[in-house]
Amino acid sequence: MQKSDHRSLFVGLDAEIPLLSGSCRCYVNLDNAASTPSLKAVQQAVDDFLVYYSSVHRGTGFKSQISTHAYEQARHIMLEFVGADPAEHTCIFVKNTTEALNKLAHRFPFTPERNIVLTSGMEHHSNDLPWRAAAKTIHIHLTPDGRLDEADFDARLAQYGPHVALVSITAASNVTGYLNPIRRLAEKTHAAGAMFCADCAQYAPHRAVNMLPLDDPAHLDFISISAHKMYAPFGSGAIIGRRDIFEHGDPDMRGGGTVEIVTLDDVVWAGAPERDEAGSPNTVGAVALAAAARTLQAVGMDEVARHEAELTAYALQRLPSVPGLHIFGDADPARAHQRLGVIPLALGNTPHFLAAAVLGYEFGIGVRSGCFCAHPYILHLLGLNTQQADEVRRRMLADDRSDMPGLIRASFGLYNTIEEVDILVEALTRIARGDYQGQYTQDRASGEYTPAGWEPPFAEYFSI
Question: Which residues are catalytic?
Fold first, then answer.
């Protein structure tokens, strides 16, 4: 078996799971675009820290002081990880990218003159819905194959330029793995007098991030990241951005830790980042995220990219051998280094929910199926017209997802191997030929399939 040189860095990769056949096998996790397993260094850092865990900030006991030290050290590590300058940027810890971008949408200083956000049709809902609630939101068009239409970006920026406050674009798509030209987009955005936010939830675990100084025309004003996509599944994330923005304005959540002083008549808010970290923070999650960042730096982000490009190129070579399989996005193995290892596909007439279920129950392979929290993007990739999209919406509102459009997504992490790609290709080939064991029933409300008369014995594997 060809091993990734990096598998020894991770927790649980050799854990066996039960299959419908009654046998067991090591789990093949190809769902890294959703969440990743934990690094051993993260597990160790958390275990070591829990011995001293206590409240942070203003506590006088040793454990409180060391917890505060660890929390602030984690903040410093994350600023360093993304090339941010503590004099110009601040790191605010949150639960995940969704909270990060909701916070920025609430805190961004829109004005009556500049009240437009430009985003795109390829965004995860987390980089779309928060802006719709905060400002007028314009969606940049996509090319037929799902890339950002930069000509349309230029046209919209020229059309709305004096009124554009912020451009917020994903650095890497969680559906197709496309990498957007965020440096070039940032330069154009700043030339129009607006600020630029890069959603780096999918990007940061796979490519180096460098925010650059604020006087660099290609700098990033804000970025968002999620720990659960960076091999640190302990409920943390961060919005990292301009200190001068977060030093002003009211916080989106009010309470303990956000103030300098409170009277019955007045409140003086704390500075950044404390103003935006209400209540007792997730100190353990911050430690975990920082430990993951340190480990990725030690491996080297160039090495991370090299390994994943090798896997992606191999997968793009092998997958077309599966009968009836169609790859969406860029399917050229020669360009694997220009994208992330996120591969969306359809398997002939086999429903995506069914294919994903069979992969899990009978082959021990974890993938994702559906729309990946990017409904407009999936509808675009599938080529559905307005009437078809309206019919999908009608059925879903009627609690019927049995024929919900969607794709299967396989996504790679640092620990995945060439052999795991072969296992996926073999399993998809068997499914395409109808060569699988179970009789599957579908739940109309969720659209998901389960094998009739069997469910995994979860309590035998874990119970609280």
Answer: 373
